[in-house]
């Protein structure tokens, strides 16, 4: 009678089949892929519509974005799946990094103010600031200069104080300190320029989320109207915001998954080699070394399969039509039609882009202008 095989051998095929099944990759249907990217599509399309002057579409797409942001983090099955070791980050429904989520609320707030609703605008600016906080790691304050400044200005417009918001805005100012509030200013100019940061992955497993800096050749704005020349610099840098939370430099690494993959892979290598040696060495006697060797071999192969199934790669989907700098100006102008010459300049005053903009100042509410070097 031939010697009996080790007791676990009949189960080895099943165990390996299960392990390698984990490593298998299933492609997403077009419908699933579209759903996972819907938020990103709303971001991009909403901003594109805003720049083109299609305010109806801009409101619709940004409404969809901010409403989804309000509930997506609670009970989102795909976000839970992405936290699993065997799911890619890019398979989850896109929400964006904190700076991207903040900008969605920022643009929606701008549109609310354009519609004569500074109270809703203020709520959006506050929601935007919350995106920069991370109480779980001790970050309880945002450091976006313009978000706090606009929160305070809306408060002043609503006959509140606004001093605390102005203080916070000046405390976090890295580029240019914002001026005192002018409650009588009736023309609010939201400015942006450049191309925002983009994402890429680095590290052995692509688990490090990194950012290529954005750029803006013309970051100074000269605004000439009624013979008066006003110059404005940027208040917030989106490259800086992408790489920090509340001013703290963040290490964008999916460390848990990367460590798990490394550990599983290393254990698999060691177990396969050790198991093979013991199994071969015990072929003559089929003794304890044989049993242990086959056990280690099986465990090693399973561990290697599990390591192969672990997908720690960072999600590099990017809201890629964002600016790199945002700024703001508040002016007093008489009601009626006006034409302004707007010029984006380099830091040394050399013109980059120039255009005339015609607008009408309303007699009974703030007039809001949105000026981007992308739509000049």
Q: Which SSEs are present, and which pair or pack?
A:
Elements: H1 9-23, H2 30-36, H3 38-52, H4 55-72, H5 77-83, H6 98-114, H7 118-130, H8 145-157, H9 163-172, E1 187-193, E2 198-202, E3 208-212, E4 220-225, E5 228-232, E6 236-237, H10 238-242, E7 244-245, E8 248-249, H11 255-281, H12 288-309, E9 325-331, E10 336-345, E11 351-361, E12 367-372
Parallel strand pairs: 1-12
Antiparallel strand pairs: 1-9, 2-3, 4-5, 4-10, 6-9, 7-8, 10-11
Give me the CATH fold name of the largest domain: Serine Threonine Protein Phosphatase 5, Tetratricopeptide repeat
**If you compute it from the alpha carbons, what radius of gyration comes out, rounded to the nearest whole angstrom?**
28 Å
Look at the helices and sheets and give the structural class. alpha+beta
Name of the CATH class of the largest domain: Mainly Alpha
Placed side by side, the strands forming the largest sheet appear as 6-9-1-12
Describe this structure in a few short sentences.
The protein is an alpha+beta fold and about 375 residues long. Helix content is about 45%, strand content about 20%.
What does this structure look like?
- This protein has 376 residues and is an alpha+beta fold.
- The chain contains twelve helices and twelve strands.
- α4 crosses α6, α6 runs antiparallel to α7 and α8 packs antiparallel against α9.
- The chain is globular.
């Amino acid at each position: 009678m031939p010697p009996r095989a080790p007791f676990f051998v009949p189960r080895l095929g099943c165990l390996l089949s299960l392990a390698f099944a984990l490593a298998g990759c299933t492609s997403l249907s077009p419908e699933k892929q579209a759903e996972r990217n819907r938020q990103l599509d709303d971001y991009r399309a909403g901003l594109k519509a805003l720049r083109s002057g299609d305010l109806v579409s801009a409101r619709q797409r940004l409404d969809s974005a901010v409403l989804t942001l309000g509930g997506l983090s609670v009970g989102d099955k795909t976000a839970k799946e992405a936290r699993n070791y065997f799911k890619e980050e890019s398979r989850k429904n896109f929400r964006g990094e904190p700076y991207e989520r903040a900008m969605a609320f920022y643009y929606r707030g701008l549109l609310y103010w354009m519609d004569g609703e500074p109270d809703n605008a203020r709520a959006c600016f506050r929601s935007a600031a919350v995106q920069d906080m991370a109480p779980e790691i001790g970050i309880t304050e945002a450091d976006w200069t313009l978000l706090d400044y606009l929160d305070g200005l809306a408060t002043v417009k609503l006959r509140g104080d606004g001093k605390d918001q102005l203080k916070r805005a000046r405390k976090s100012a890295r580029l240019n300190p914002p001026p005192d509030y002018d409650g009588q200013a009736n023309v609010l100019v939201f400015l942006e320029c450049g191309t925002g940061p983009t994402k890429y992955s680095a590290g052995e497993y692509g688990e490090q989320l990194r950012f290529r800096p954005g750029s803006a050749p013309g970051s100074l704005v000269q605004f000439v109207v009624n013979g008066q020349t006003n110059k404005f610099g940027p208040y917030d840098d989106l490259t800086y915001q992408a790489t920090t939370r509340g001013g703290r430099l963040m290490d964008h690494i999916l460390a848990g998954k990367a460590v798990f993959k490394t550990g599983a892979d290393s254990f698999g290598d060691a177990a396969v080699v050790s198991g093979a040696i013991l199994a071969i060495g015990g072929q003559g006697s089929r003794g304890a070394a044989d049993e242990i060797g086959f056990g280690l071999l099986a465990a090693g192969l399973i561990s290697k399969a599990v390591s192969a199934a672990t997908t720690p790669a960072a999600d590099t989907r990017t809201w890629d039509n964002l600016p790199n700098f945002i700024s703001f100006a508040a002016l007093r102008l008489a009601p009626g039609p006006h034409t302004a010459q707007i010029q984006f300049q380099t830091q040394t005053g050399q013109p980059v882009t120039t255009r005339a903009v015609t607008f009408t100042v309303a007699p009974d509410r703030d007039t809001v202008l949105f000026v981007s070097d992308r739509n000049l």
